[in-house]
Amino acid sequence: MTAMRTITYREAVREALREAMARDERVFLMGEDVGRYGGAYACSKGLIEEFGEERVRDTPLSEAGFTGAGIGAALGGMRPIVEIMTVNFSLLALDQIVNTAATLRHMSGGQMSVPLVIRMATGAGRQLAAQHSHSLECWFAHVPGLRVVSPATVADARGMLWTALEDPDPVVIFEHAALYNDEGEVSAEGDLARDLDRAAVRRSGEDVSIITYSGSLKKALTAADTLSAEGIDSEVIDLRSIRPLDNETILTSVAKTKRAVIVDEGWRTGGLSAEIAARISELRFYDLDAPVERVCSVEVPIPYPRHLETAATPQPDGIMTAVHRTLRR
Amino acid sequence: MTAMRTITYREAVREALREAMARDERVFLMGEDVGRYGGAYACSKGLIEEFGEERVRDTPLSEAGFTGAGIGAALGGMRPIVEIMTVNFSLLALDQIVNTAATLRHMSGGQMSVPLVIRMATGAGRQLAAQHSHSLECWFAHVPGLRVVSPATVADARGMLWTALEDPDPVVIFEHAALYNDEGEVSAEGDLARDLDRAAVRRSGEDVSIITYSGSLKKALTAADTLSAEGIDSEVIDLRSIRPLDNETILTSVAKTKRAVIVDEGWRTGGLSAEIAARISELRFYDLDAPVERVCSVEVPIPYPRHLETAATPQPDGIMTAVHRTLRR
Amino acid sequence: MSRAEDGRVHLTREHALELLRRMMLIRSFEEKCAELYTQEKIRGFLHLYIGEEANAVGVMQALEPEDAIVATYREHGHALARGISASAVMAEMYGKASGSSRGRGGSMHIYDAGHRFYGGNAIVGGGLPLAVGLALADKMQGLTRVTCCFFGEGAAAEGEFHESMNLAALWKLPVLFVCENNGYAMGTALSRSESNPDIAAHAAVFGMPADVVDGMNVVDVEAAARRAAKAVRAGEGPRFIESKTYRFRAHSMFDAELYRDKSEVEEWKKRGPVIRFTKWLLDTGTAHESDIEAIEREVETIVGDAVTFAEAAPWEPVDDLTRDVMSPAKGAVR
Amino acid sequence: MSRAEDGRVHLTREHALELLRRMMLIRSFEEKCAELYTQEKIRGFLHLYIGEEANAVGVMQALEPEDAIVATYREHGHALARGISASAVMAEMYGKASGSSRGRGGSMHIYDAGHRFYGGNAIVGGGLPLAVGLALADKMQGLTRVTCCFFGEGAAAEGEFHESMNLAALWKLPVLFVCENNGYAMGTALSRSESNPDIAAHAAVFGMPADVVDGMNVVDVEAAARRAAKAVRAGEGPRFIESKTYRFRAHSMFDAELYRDKSEVEEWKKRGPVIRFTKWLLDTGTAHESDIEAIEREVETIVGDAVTFAEAAPWEPVDDLTRDVMSPAKGAVR
Ligand SMILES: Cc1ncc(C[n+]2csc(CCOP(=O)(O)OP(=O)(O)O)c2C)c(N)n1
Ligand SMILES: Cc1ncc(C[n+]2csc(CCOP(=O)(O)OP(=O)(O)O)c2C)c(N)n1
Ligand SMILES: [Mg+2]
Ligand SMILES: [Mg+2]
């Protein structure tokens, strides 16, 4: 039996970074304040002391420039990890990510490979208002040529970076900012590879499939616990990979429960929830006993005050209401 | 009876621009090569001679800079029309559009208004390959604070700019590059206001609802014609507005036909088609006789050769196949 | 504020005390904010301007009510120096409905249309194109107004900075750019982020006159701003001021300050804008201890009242969540 | 190509004829392309390099096989000058499976891993950060290689340009930036898009040595490139060359050229890189008419063969449409 130990999500990210750099000298971390400052969310604290400023590389405020440099460095034989502080700032780098990183392999007829990992924080919950709180994972999930993952647990945060770095294609990792202080178990040694492509069933159940990812997983599990006290047995699926989506796990679950509730902190219209709802409705059309429900963020730039931020984003209450609706209770 | 005349989509855009500038001196056009060159797609040819270089303002290659300047100018009392040559280049301006234009009213508690119009070309069909051919309308349609329209007809191209300029909020107009040479009828005078928010039923039918917009409308109508010869009576809906979506028209149609096929040149996963499919499946769950079908672009950066570009994008054949599937034929 | 047109500082006793009063108000207000943050009355990111007060206060002297201001997430000082009420700003920090942005924005997003205060922008460099556009609107409308844009030296690395410099200079727009160079962008020292740390040179290369000023000296800042604003107002095109300053506090309340020595901070504190100006006022006999104490009491009262106001202010009802996403009056804008 | 290390041009007869041969190959190749475009064999955007050949040819002399190249959508010349076969490039223009990018990219997206030719980029300015990254990889791996990045003067207005200059200079990366200043970005003259049209100054402000060279003179370009490449290779950090040149043809095949006078074009044509170098070769007796004619025949044959090759080349099967979106060998990259 493997010994387990408890660490935070932040520590998991840090350990993963440290391990990656120790294992492979082509790996380096690059981004604003990843070095001296220790990372905006303190994920890389201590790493500059350990690996030096070449490999824990502070950049100027130039999201397009250093993301593009990451693409070039990947082409040139390195294994860069680019950190963008927050998904809102990634808008400055989307040209490089979408027009270049995602297209190079195809445009070059398979000659060019961009083994780049981009990490960024996402999500609300810290009262950072409308320019620091969004969840644009769905945008990245729309783009052929990218792989997109979002670890919801400490163990996945510990393991996913490894798999991402093995990937010959660009991988975007979303870390929900509200998770960094969460604690969770990881194995003391070894066995860290995580299959990026498979969703995880975090709770088995028979009555309804709650499908979610990232910062909303905890909320879904909370709702599932309360529902369970009411005698409603929810299955909770953590997508982990949001491009590609793991159809099999989703559809198998819905084939069993015949009801689905999607919980997604992105805005509702045109969000990831829409894709999942569309797939289930298309592919489980004859199985579904009720319309697929979506619990998403309200379509508003996330406001600052706690009560409005809470009201704007998915909460266990809302998830329970949606489950009740699918069960007509 | 109003006299009608036939003009091209390009001419319609140009007339609309000219009329807007003649009517309201706060209106001006700004973008790369809109002046001396006459516009990358020749939409503004002749306007610099008519209105001068202050109001038909050539900009440097600085998408973020001049789009942001458009936001500022709108705040400052002008009615700017910013042209971004192609949606792929708009990625360079997304920070300004999403983090600023879309959030300002809300972040300021309603004090700030950004009556900005952004026009851009979108779509494939001209063999311009992976950095000039995408359809990212769905990204914009995801963002609260923006209004997004996409005229599919010459008359709408003529009329929509007027309504967009009346709007106190930022409006993004997508013009499909493959439409510019299309001809169509517009009224000789007056009556140009178009309701930005309403979809148009371009063909009434009883058997299936084909829901589409922009460059795919023609393809849908072609498919509908062929299907009609087979005895299948399609209703074709042109969304026109893609944010907000006109639920009522969509749902009314599907309530009647009980079958829906969505045609969207965006990539399938997480595209606008997903949102429409999700809505229909949620809100017409008990009416639908078959799963909603989606005919989208294949998930590949659009390739250059004609045969691959054609294969990558929705075509009448594919639409017909999808209709047949919904009808189990 | 006296009309700024002549481009020179008239340092009367009255004016000098007004400068001090404004700096002390900002200082006192922000010290209170830091306290309220630890009490969790203020949440999110809180970026204090402490140490940099001379910049906002000095520059604002050169601006008229019809001018526009664009600032950053470190903008409490600019808002107060512009004359926005401390109560409205404090209520915004609380996230209350009586806040200057109805509580929607918090510390990083203070707006006030009446004062032509256009934020408040939490995207580094994001305000620069906006300022260019405001100035473009003025120029096209034939209005003789200045748009003043504040930003940090870290922003100068962003592409949006360079694009904005070019547009403003190319089109000769009435913008006054004020770079508050406090030496650090979060934890990154300027020399580690700019190959050429001479920020003024990055503006000058666009053909824009660029001045460097001691940002710890409110009178120097005012003088530079008056000169620059005068030129801008005269239609000479944009002007750039790089103001060398320093923040005494951490970048935000989350910052462990691993990247700089305490001694460096202490050195700069000795040159603090408030302490130094106060000393000068006393040394020259322009003011007396009693004047200073009176100002202290005055600003304490203002800040105390602001807190009382914010505490008592109502929360926005949750039902209003989606208010102000889009205009309710579609098609009805002037 | 001789080893470029000594940073000087050795203009032997052999070398001179080689320069001419390469320029004439590009010219002849592109004239053929224009023809094929009107025949609809080539579609999409076609940006001709005619008039600018001295730049690609001159610069490539300074590069070694292990160096990397990043270019733009106007890159046929660079591809050919780099030594990529005319047949592979022509097949790419046709969109055939034997093209240098399997036909996926067409005129704007020529790639060749073997020649370390990294595109082909249809986003103006988009290649600059890529070049910075390639050079960063070399530096971190201790490889003494140069990354050479070509772009137009229009790109210098983009934020990505300035961010790239800063990164390259800040980190002293081995990049050779070559700005092909042909005076226009589509229809926008440089003076109408840059407040300071001195492009080299926009690099120099980052502390990067920047040279201006006559881009119509292949020997001058080669000399400048050799000097710069030598410095870059020696670890002195990035170098910048602004090459003053001109395009004789329209921006793309869609351009009506409303923005410039025919007479201006005619003036520049007189200084054309091929015509001028040929004249010099003849005047100095370095070459004879018969040499020129031999080269003409030679390049015609190459271009003719390229067309034959492209015509005969197969189309990619539609079933392969989604090939090369993601690696089939996930987890298997070296
Ligand atoms: C585009 C963008 N990137 C990164 C950040 C995170 N961030 C906030 S403030 C800051 C430092 C800015 O430094 P500077 O411009 O010097 O202003 P100062 O904070 O020193 O006043 C950073 C990196 C951001 N808000 N926006
Ligand atoms: C980001 C971006 N904006 C706009 C365009 C459209 N465009 C293509 S080439 C071009 C002009 C570029 O001029 P320059 O950099 O001088 O290169 P040249 O074409 O003269 O070689 C423009 C505006 C583009 N491809 N990418
Ligand atoms: Mg700073
Ligand atoms: Mg050019």
Automatic annotation (TrEMBL), chains C, D:
Q: Which Pfam families match?
A: E1_dh
Q: Which residues form the signal peptide?
A: none
Keywords assigned by UniProt, alphabetized = Oxidoreductase, Pyruvate, Thiamine pyrophosphate
On assembly, the entry states:
Heterodimer of an alpha and a beta chain.
- The source organism is Stappia sediminis
Q: What is its EC number?
A: 1.2.4.1
Would the keyword Heme turn up in this protein's UniProt record? no
Its required cofactor(s), as named, are: thiamine diphosphate
Biological classification of the source: Bacteria, Pseudomonadati, Pseudomonadota, Alphaproteobacteria, Hyphomicrobiales
- Protein name, per record: Pyruvate dehydrogenase E1 component subunit alpha
